[in-house]
């Protein structure tokens, strides 16, 4: 299954022009099965800076237009109506959608973080769909945009909140994709919390698998090579695809000037981990051990772990 992540800046490119057809064309070209979008406008009179639109076309229902132009089903969740319409996140899917859910973060309530240095506090929202894949089965896909707190506290609180919410939706061990604009560099604590909740950063794991890198080096490189903003001169890694029960076999940062963010494209398969036979001190020579990371630990894994220091 291919997942495409993109903060589309309400279909406004770095050239300042509003062009939903251009946005839709890039999505269609990606050949994605599921697309997670942020900063999507529906019938808004003003932009995210609360400035009146001079171009009447920007008052479009962008979620509907993108769905129609790509031939995909969609689900939209609004975070605010302060701009005269709705503004929030969207998911497009070629796969059948079995269920749709949304959650407004309490962690981003206006009175929650007075230390939001980058912008005025704005309610954030997560939208989630349960899609059906012929081979992988049901998969939860979640689109988020986290707050812009320079301290990173709001983003960390929102990750904790979204994981608590998802625990009420997803069955134990059910595959999960959490993608979005985290507004957080790789060293922010929200990413450590994702790790603690059993989510794998698709970029880091795919980069590490391809190049045999240790995780620390992969994180360091990702801060530069995985940068997604600003799209005309990317220097910040703000967009992420996190996985549970799935692994990325291909991951690309898509060069585009159709938004202020670059897009991400990840080809996913069921997660299995193959460990080299040479590290098994108490298994037969030439043996390897494949296991589902969501399954209970087997006796062979316990035997292996006990033999590491012998």
Automatic annotation (TrEMBL):
MF GO annotations: catalytic activity
GO biological process: GPI anchor biosynthetic process
Entry's Gene Ontology cellular component terms: membrane
Pfam families: Exo_endo_phos (PF03372)
Endonuclease/exonuclease/phosphatase domain residues: 6-261
PANTHER family: CALCOFLUOR WHITE HYPERSENSITIVE PROTEIN PRECURSOR (PTHR14859), PGAP2-INTERACTING PROTEIN (PTHR14859:SF1)
Protein name per UniProt: Endonuclease/exonuclease/phosphatase domain-containing protein
């Amino acid at each position: 299954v291919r997942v495409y992540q993109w903060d589309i800046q309400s279909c406004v490119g770095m050239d300042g022009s509003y062009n939903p057809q251009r946005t839709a064309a890039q999505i269609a070209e990606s050949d994605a099965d599921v697309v997670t979008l942020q900063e999507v406008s529906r019938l808004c009179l003003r932009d995210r800076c609360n400035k009146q639109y001079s171009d009447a076309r920007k008052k479009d229902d962008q979620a509907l237009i993108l769905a129609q132009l790509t031939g995909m089903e969609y689900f939209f969740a609004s975070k605010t109506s302060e701009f005269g319409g709705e503004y929030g996140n969207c998911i497009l899917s070629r796969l059948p959608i079995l269920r749709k859910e949304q959650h407004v973060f309490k962690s981003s309530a206006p009175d929650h973080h007075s230390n939001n240095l980058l912008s005025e506090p704005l309610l954030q929202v997560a939208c989630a769909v349960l899609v059906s894949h012929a081979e992988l089965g049901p998969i939860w896909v979640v689109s988020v945009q986290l707050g812009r707190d320079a301290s990173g506290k709001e983003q960390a609180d929102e990750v904790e909140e979204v994981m608590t919410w998802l625990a009420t939706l997803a069955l134990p061990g059910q595959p999960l994709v959490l993608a979005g604009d985290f507004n957080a560099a790789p060293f922010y604590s929200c990413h450590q919390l994702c790790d603690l909740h059993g989510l794998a950063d698709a970029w880091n794991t795919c980069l590490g698998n391809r190049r045999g890198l240790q995780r620390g080096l992969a994180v360091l490189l990702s801060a530069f090579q995985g940068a997604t903003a600003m799209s005309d001169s990317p220097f910040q890694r703000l967009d992420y695809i996190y996985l549970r029960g799935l692994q990325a076999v291909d991951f690309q940062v898509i060069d585009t000037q159709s938004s202020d963010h670059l897009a991400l494209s990840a080809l996913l398969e069921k997660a299995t981990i193959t460990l080299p036979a040479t590290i098994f001190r108490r298994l037969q020579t030439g043996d390897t051990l494949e296991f589902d990371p969501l399954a209970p630990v087997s006796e062979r894994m316990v035997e292996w772990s006990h033999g590491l220091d012998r």
